[in-house]
Amino acid sequence: MKIMVTGASGMLGQDLCPILENIGAFVIPTQTDNLDIKDKNAVNNFIKQTRPDIIIHCAAYTNVDKAESKKDAAFEVNFNGTDNIASAAAENNALLIYISTDYVFDGTKNTPYLPNDKTNPQNIYGASKLAGEESVRKHCQKYYITRTSWLYGHHGKNFVETMISYADRPELKVVDDQIGCPTWTVELCRGIIKLISSQKPYGIYHICGSGSTSWYGFAKEIFNQMNLKVNLKPCKTNDFPRDAKRPQYSVMDNNSICPNWQDSLREYIKLRG
Question: What residues are labeled active site?
C-alpha cells in the first residue's frame, strides 16, 4: 500500500509518516521543497508518476490570526491547493483523506457537533478549510474528511509546550470561555488508520480527543500532570482580543474513535523525555 502524505514536515506529518511505515505502508512524503500543492501541473505530474493508493492531505495554512489579513494566501493553500490534490486524486483513483478543523462551525451549539451539522465558519481560516472540504466532495468519490481540533504534538509549537514554558510566570491567565476537544497528533494518526483499516463508508468524520474542556481547563490538567505549581487564573476571551474570532463551543462528537483527552495528554507527557 502506497500512501502519499502532504505536509510531511509539519507537526502532524512528522508523527504520521513513521506510524504509517510501522503498519507496513510505503510512504511518499511531500513538503514544499519537493511538491508545491498550489501548482496544479506539478501536483498532477507527481501523483501520476507516484501512483499512490491513498493520499493523506495534511498540508495547510494554519496561522489562524494571520489568515485574517492574509486571506488570499490562506485560500491559495487551503482551497486552491486542496482542489489540485482532490482533482488529481480522483483522476488517479486514489483515496483522499483531508484534514479539516472544528473551526468550520460557528460555536453557537451547546451539544457536540455531528459530522452532518450545519457549518458556518467565523474566521478566514475556517472558511478556507471549509472551501477545501467542498473541493474534496466535488472531485472525489473516495474520500474521508477528518475534522480535528486543538491539535498538539511533539514536533511543533503547541499549547502544551507553551503552557509549560509559562509555568514560572508570577500569574498566568488562560481563557475559560472557549470549549473544545484537545487532540494529540498521535491519536489523530491512529484514528486515520482506523478509518482506512475498517473501511468505513466514505464521508466526514470527527477525529478528536474524547471529552471536552476549556483552554483554562486544559492548562490546569497540564500543570496537574506535570506536578507544577502555577498561579493559574481563568479569564474571558474579551480579555485577550485576537484578530480571528474563535467559536465559543467547538466540541465535536467523535463516535468514541479516540480516547479521553486527559489520557492522551498523560501519554504525551510521558514521551516528552
Answer: 125
